[in-house]
Amino acid sequence: MMLLTKAPLRDQLIVIPSILGVMTLLFLTIYLTIIYKIDDEYLRYRLLFIFYGKIKIEKIHKIDVGKTLYVGMRPAFARNGLIIHYNKYEEIYISPLNNEEFVQELLKRKPDIEIIRRESK
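User: That's the sequence. What structure does it adopt?
Assistant: Structure tokens below.
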């Protein structure tokens, strides 16, 4: 019969910081690789190299400012960002560095986008 023993303290002192370091590195990598870009025709987003796409600006019909989407497509890492409603029923949550500047850039390209501002709590 094999007896299970607790790992020695020196092993714990190596494993726990290593796990925390890997998790921190992963979160920093995700945070630093989130990119949102507006060109003449598209809003483009990218998270790492696996989650990316583009939305035709002319298909955007509404933007919720200062709201958080908890379910659905979220190439974002922060709260109180923008929920972009496009096509008929699709939406995506993004969190640019400055919500207002981002909305103004989109309005320059399509002025009839409905903007809904949420009060901050």
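The chain is about 30% helix and 30% strand.
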